[in-house]
Amino acid sequence: MAASITGELTKADTAREAWITGVGIISTLGEGAQAHWRALHAAPGPGDAVTWSPFVIHPIAALDLDKQIPKKGDQRQMEAWQRIGTYAAGLALDSAGVKGNAELLARMDMIVAAGGGERDAAVDAAILSGLRKSDRPAAFLNERLMNDLRPTLFLAQLSNLVAGNISIVHGVTGSSRTFMGEESAGVDAVRVAQARIAAAQSEITLVGGSANADQISTMLLFAMGHRLWKGELRPLWERAAAGGGLASGSLGAFLVIEEKNHALARAATPLVRLSAVVSGQARRVPGAITAMLEGLWGRIAPHLEADRLAIISGATGAEPATAEERAFLSARAPIAIRATSSHLGHGVETQFPMNIALAAIALQQGRIFPSFDPTGFEHAMDAPLRQVVVTSVGHWRGEGLALLEAVG
Amino acid sequence: MARYLDQAGRPIVVVTGMGVVTSLGIGTADNWRKLIAGESGIHTIARFATEGLKTRIAGTIDFVPIERLSSPDLSERLAEMVAQEAIAEAGIGTRGDFPGPLFLAVPPIELEWPQRQAVADASGAYDTITNRDLMRGADTGPFDEFYQRFMFASVADGLAERIGTKGSPISLSTACASGATAIQLGIEAIRRGEVEAALCIGTDGSINPESLVRFSLLSALSTANDPPQAAAKPFAKNRDGFVMAEGAAALVLESLEHAVGRGAKLFGVIEGCGEMADSFHRTRSSPDGRPIIGCIRNAIADAGLTPDDIDYVNPHGTGTPENDKMEGLAAAAVFGERAKQLPISSNKSMIGHTLSAAGAVEAVITLMTLDRQVLPPTINYQVPDPALQLDVVPNVARDAKVRHALSNSFGFGGQNVSLVLAREPK
Fold first, then answer.
1. Which among A189, A258, B106, B426 would be 20 to 30 A from A182, CA to CA?
2. Cβ–Cβ of A52/B148 closer than 8 Å?
3. Element (H, E) at B142
4. HSE, side-chain direction, 13 A CA sphere, residue A248
5. Is the N-terminal amide bond of A54 cis, ω within 30° of 0?
């Protein structure tokens, strides 16, 4: 049975449009729209090939946490992934001009795409070593867990506690939902946020995600699935020849999505219109991803202006997903394609909101950033940019597309 | 046409099928019989050694055969059982083809100790095992099965494949409010006109030594181990924490128009839902109760009702000193003097706290309460708390006339959801 598709195109000029009025992004490239736009004009860096050698990660750039998480007590109660998410959410609220607006934040909705939290590596190591030597391993495990786990570590492990921390630090309390499920969580978070606004279920929503590459849980999972790139990093489209692989990236990316008239009423500056988000989940037999992407593309195709359109791909580098996405993208030639994970690494749940933010920035600039793809798959584009399609193909499951359009 | 729309012009959302499994048993009929008999499903933990633990009781589900025991495996198995019960009752779709999306409340998934040990073994390291060793073990070992099992999307993926739900399945967490959030997402999708039917499931099979220790270290759990059946004491003065439990519940939601169109039997109506997050603290609610009061008021307003219309409350009612105090305060604020007479009984006194599943489990029990017009009791209510002037339906079930009921779910991390349920469309 063919998997079905969820999500609708919101036609421009209908009564309710979803505008993006704020973006907050942090990654290995730095902090904020300008830093990212600048960095995307330089060749991708090599990442950190030492910490998790032979695997490569893209660690988060240095952050001055006090700027977005003013209380030291709050900083202490979070682990890295929560600080990344809370920081990026603060940037998004600043960007939308709503930071500290208590009345608005109290009715602002929130959807966070999150994985899981951190572990205490020292405690885990001591337990694993001790379990082998213990003649009563079950009692040993209980004793060590009871005595060695920090009580507050739990609060840095629960998926919904990125959202919880955003409520506490920034005061976003209208509603709060956390979607889990790797890349699909990011796609569906943005899709549901957009659909709720189009259907008058929300006026303004904070949506995004947070990922810390420098932690054992995700790294271990990717390694067990043999999805990681090993050795000196190569640009994304070059990796297939060597079997493919992803480089994990630390990312924080949040968007403020707002109903057009709500934005106009508070004289907010629209960055772009989020016209459509569509998602699906193919049974991954050969050809299924390509077919799913074709089906999703069919949903938004009537609205596309090919000569003013670019595609920002969320391709992970992991195979066979990336090869299938490539086959789909090949058929879209000569539309310019840019795979951002060459620059940023792969941030799982956060990749899609991050790429939507980068699309919004490019549309603001009126052009797509240059390609550094040595394979020639990513075409140059000189024409003014009016539309961007963002893709997501999960390294294991889940496919999605978003259409963003310049406003005015 | 208008009779299919609610007071706000939105499609009315009805429940046409339900399924439930708790520590009391399998299925709505068996659970209901035991709930109104005031039985407890809480017992001494036999699944793993409890030596050295302060809490040695839980509502684990040990009567469901399962090939491999892990949180995602058991959570998926329980979810599939309740989904099958709900879909069979609804008589919707065909086997392996459900005509709507899946919204799944599921515990956060992570590698557990047996798998971590297997990876450590594969590393060849012995004395001290570092992250680097684990990565080497993971990279060299045959662990593709672990990889697929411990992905956050894996439980929903397995369910979506076998049940044949449509579109990208959504896995979600709002901690102890997750089950209610899953229902809320289904309601919203139907109200948007995006879908005619949705399958909303809350499931939790996550009791293992580490999950128990985590809650224990937050001082959230009852340590009244003996007798286990008496440990969960919501609203009683001697309440000393919640009792972890496993369970699952599924609801088939449909637009009223769709349900009537295909001649489906209606089990109830979801009239309203409300949310409000708390910005006070990671585990404690605002001392003034403003977020949970606002959450309840939002749900009642969303249903087009006033507090006077609510005849019964199925509370979050965990049995922690803090939760029940705040919930009593919220009831007084929302219902005023009526709060003293308004029945409010906690299912958790019998089934324990089913965590990610609780919101869905308790919505199903509330719908049965509306259907049978009998209020399940709050058991273990021996020492009234003078600070809580509430009718908790102490110890014995009671007949009642219930038209509209409220079901509350409040989560760690400050995520609160309330639902308003009814037997019949207005």
1. A258
2. no
3. none
4. 28
5. yes
- The residue among A255, A245, A277 whose CA lies nearest residue A345 is A245
What is residue A237's three-state secondary structure?
helix
Name the nearest CA neighbour of A274 among A110, A170, A152, A401.
A401
For residue B13, what is the enclosing H or E element?
A: strand B13-22
Identify the CA nearest to A92 among candidates A354, A347, A286. Answer: A354
Number of CB pairs, chain A paired with chain B, less than 8 A apart: 258
Give yes or no for B301 touching A (CB within 8 A).
no
Asked if the C-beta of A16 comes within 8 angstroms of chain B's C-beta atoms, the answer is no
Report residue A80: phi and psi, to 5°: -50, -45
> Which is it for strands A387-393 and A309-313: parallel, antiparallel or unpaired?
parallel
**Distances in Å between the alpha carbon of B246 and those of B60, B320, B333, B351, B382?**
5, 18, 32, 9, 25
- The DSSP 8-state label assigned to residue A356 in this structure reads H
pLDDT tens sequence for chain A (408 residues): 334 666 655 544 467 999 999 999 999 999 999 999 999 999 999 999 999 999 999 999 999 999 999 999 999 999 999 999 999 999 999 999 999 999 999 999 999 999 988 899 999 999 999 999 999 999 999 999 999 999 999 998 999 999 999 999 999 999 999 999 999 999 999 999 999 999 999 999 999 999 999 999 999 999 999 999 999 999 999 999 999 999 999 999 999 999 999 999 999 999 999 999 999 999 999 999 999 999 999 999 999 998 999 999 999 999 999 999 999 999 999 999 999 999 999 999 999 999 999 999 999 999 999 999 999 999 999 999 999 999 999 999 999 999 999 997
Residues near B32 by beta carbon (within 8 Å), at least 6 away in sequence: B365, B368, B372
Distance between start and end Cα atoms, chain A: 42
For tokens 């008589």, name the residue. Answer: B91
**Cα distance between residue B40 and residue B54, in whole Å:** 21
CA distances from B102 to A223, B230, B245 (A): 29, 36, 23
Q: Are the Cβ atoms of A396 and B148 closer than 8 angstroms? A: yes
Sort A133 into a burial class: Cβ within 10 Å, 0-12 / 13-18 / 19+.
exposed
CB A123 within 8 A of CB A149: yes
Rg over alpha carbons for chain A, rounded to the nearest Å, is: 21
Say if CB A109 and CB A244 are below 8 A apart: no
Q: How many CA atoms lie within 13 A of A21 on its CB side?
A: 27
CA-based nearest residue to B216, from B56, B57, B355, B55: B55
DSSP strand pairing (A336-339 vs A309-313): parallel
Helix A288-300 with A321-330: angle, nearest 10 deg: 40
| Alpha-carbon gap: B236 to the closest alpha carbon of chain A (Å) | 26
The structure tokens 């349900």 sit at: B259
| Catalytic-residue membership of B273 | no
Active site annotation includes B316: yes
Report the candidate in B181, B196, B249 with the shortest Cα–Cα distance to residue B13: B196
The rounded distance, in Å, linking the Cα atoms of B61 and B246 is 6
Taking only Cα atoms into account, the Rg of chain B, rounded to an integer number of angstroms, comes to 21
- Cα separation, B74 vs A194, in Å, equals 34
The pair phi, psi for residue B122, each rounded to 5°, is -70, -20
Integer Cα distance of A283 and A2 in angstroms: 8
Angle in degrees, CA A145, A151, A152, rounded to 5 = 135
Question: What DSSP state is assigned to residue B233?
Answer: -
Contact (CB<8Å) A146/B217 = yes
pTM value is 0.98
ipTM: 0.97
Q: What is the spatial distance between Cα A142 and Cα B45, in angstroms, rounded to a whole number?
A: 14
φ, ψ at A185 (rounded to 5°):
-60, -40
* CA dist., res. B23 & res. B25, Å (int): 6
> Is CATH 3.30.470.10 correct for A15-118+156-405?
no
